[in-house]
Input
Amino acid sequence: MEAFSHLLEQLYYTAGTNAKAQLIRDYIATAPDPDRGWAIAAMAGTLRFDFFKRNTVKKLITSRIDPELFAMSYDYVGEVSETVAHLWPEYTPIKPLPTLSCIVDDFASTSKQKVSATLASYLSMMTPPQRWALLKLGTRGLRVGVSARSIKQILADYGNKDVKEIETLWHAVKPPYIDLLQWLEGKVDKPDIKNAVTFHPVMLSHPIETKDIDGFSPNTWQIEHKYDGIRVQLAVNTQKVEPEKALYSRTGDDISHAFPDLLECVTGNMVLDGELLVIHNAKCIQDGMQTPEVDTFNALQQRLNKKKPTKALLESLPVGLIVYDILSLNGESLTACSLRTRRNKLERWLSLAAIPRLFLSPTLRADSPDALRELHKTVCEDRAVEGLMVKRRESTYTPGRPKGQWFKWKRDALTVDAVMMYAQRGHGKRSSFYSDYTFGAWEGDQLLPIGKAYSGFTDEELKKLDNWVRRNAVGRFGPVREVKKALVLEVAFDAVHPSNRHKSGVALRFPRIHRIRWDKPATEADTLDTIKELIEH
Amino acid sequence: MHPSSWLEVNDIGLYCKPGDFYIDPMNVVHTALITHGHADHARAGHHTVYASRETLAIMQTRYGEDMADTQSEIELGCGLQFNDVTVTFFPAGHILGSTQILIEYAGYRVVVSGDYKRRHDPTCPPFEVVPCDIFISEATFGLPVFTHPPIENEINKLLHSVRVFPNRCHLVGAYALGKCQRVILALRDAGYSKPIYLHGAQLKLCDLYQQFDIDLGELIPVSEVKDKTELEGEIVIAPPSALADRWSRSLPNVRTVMASGWMQIRARAKQRNVELPLIISDHCDWPELLQTIKEVSPKEVWVTHGREDALMYQAQKMGFKARALSLVGYDEDEQGGS
Output
């Protein structure tokens, strides 16, 4: 437990992905099995159960510390685990502490009635940082700034493997990952995952270029909408003894928990590639060929990152999947087949299976490069669509971003001339530089903030912007500097949504600095009304 | 007459009506009694200032020789007369020259503790328990989550880090008055004899400490180091505000360290991008605040700057009468040298 706690302490205070990765690699190299596997599970968020409930922790502490003082402390510290770690009144050190795996096993086998006493005895033998580690671990609330994706990369580097191999295995191997780690160290064979439901690394597209459009010929390419949702992979096998279903993000994170409405209605044995969207007629579909009533990305956003979505939310914003590819069917991998073949299989299967919430992504037609341009223009008028996808019909499903196979043709970004209002210092290598800018648009003679951007400029431009902020600062609110309303930023963004979180009533999607208009007077920047006209409906 | 009728809190600070003086006033006044030299307690421009010899020297260093028209050096433990009011200064153990002030009037004894701590500090005599009717206590770390570890532990963390990261310049954020010198002395006690490098803002006050025969060892201003790569593996001390400032960009491969009582709270350290937090404080932690209230055992505790609620609540639970005294202006954040 000491080594795990020490690792968390270091990770917590270390900035920078590389430095964190180094710490984790060192830990994996030195910690024994199965401890290190549990640590990986804790960091990657793959622990399957809570050791104890948050409420158990609260009850324990308030039976030992005056509840008023606990409340005041919690209010100040802002986090239960840390507050409890500091306030726990008993300390009888035991050296060495039980191992991480002992603790995991202990909680896994302890009866409900004894959980509280077990936790109390552990807390009493630990220092505050160790208590914090245990509380975070046990309530699965560990955040150390390392994503599941980076953990996989770290494991790949550790074993000198391609991260795709780890991703393929990831959902089939279970904590404490003994077989995986031993394989990485060359001690055993690669884990066998034939029958398991797992994530297949996805195939990605390149932005289309003029020469690609000029070279367009109708029979070589398949054209589809580029939807404005999130790319997901649905992997299902309900034909085996222990049925499994999982929904993965494009990076392989398991996001099943947030979308029970989608998962509960799918059956079969297949892996699908598609776009997750809020679809209002999701439930009433008959044969996969109907037109989905798609809502905006803004609507979908309310469904993302929900650990347990409420019933009301599931009702008001139902999700569905627009399927554009099939990677395996009935246990047969299709990734080596051409898109033409996969598409045929997908169409046939989907029309027969008629699974609620699954829609087929329709193909579009264009007979020439000019027709393709015309089509792009028409399609982009629909603000729920992001543009076109143009895919080579002969393309096999190749993970990564193979050249010349798939193209995305996004709608042109929208731009607005806004005025810088506030600046804040950045993090990591940008700390001490004012690199995060809040900008606004005019309403009458008043500026209202419409967004914040911290990308899109070069290092050289950053230095100039930083310098400008320092010379033109007029006020300070904590870490935020207010600046003279004099610098116009041309901001590019993908869409505008209505928002009641901002005073201006609008929220921009993915705003970034397009150009710095050193030349333009602030009075000539855009008005809020101009921006509101761009809202999607 | 109960002190609440003759000790008044106004926009300027704590005012003693019958003695016609302020203690640690925010604005310029005629007569000011100063507990210690931190900028939020000691301001420039008063007509007459009463303070310890060290505090006067600190104020002169900061604000110039003419920081007040009349500068009266007090003697610890000796009463001074202001009309019918008797005032006596006692050591507070906070920083060099820090004092608490006993006010006696109309049969009441009131102690204004200023900022104080109970731990050993080689730069000042220890806090003295002064029996009184009303004890005015600070509450900077007035929550039970605050327990400061021994300074040796924290200094060892720093020295350990210097050994583990010999190529990184260890930039320690420490308030220029008190904290900086305490960190230096603790490093020397731990056997660290290499030169310690200083930000310009720390220089004058370190010189002053040396003039008071406090040996800080070899100190070198960062500005005198031509080739900054020489600072790899060295310890540099700067004010907390300089950690994220442009100044620190010239240092090589910085590891950000901060010495403050606040560093006990993770988010506080994280907000400042601190990689190595050192919990070193010139204030009492929670157990010491309670210990002090018990030992002083006043009839009433008045609680000022900091987390008053919890300390008041606890003092009442311990059987003392307690109230909050909202004094304006004292920085409750690390700028105040916490």
About this structure: Chain B touches chain A at residues 143-147, 244-246, 248-249, 264-267, 269-270, 273-277, 307, 309-310, 313-314, 317 (CB under 8 Å). Chain B has two domains: 3-145+283-336, 151-278. Residues 151-164 of chain B form the longest helix (14 residues).
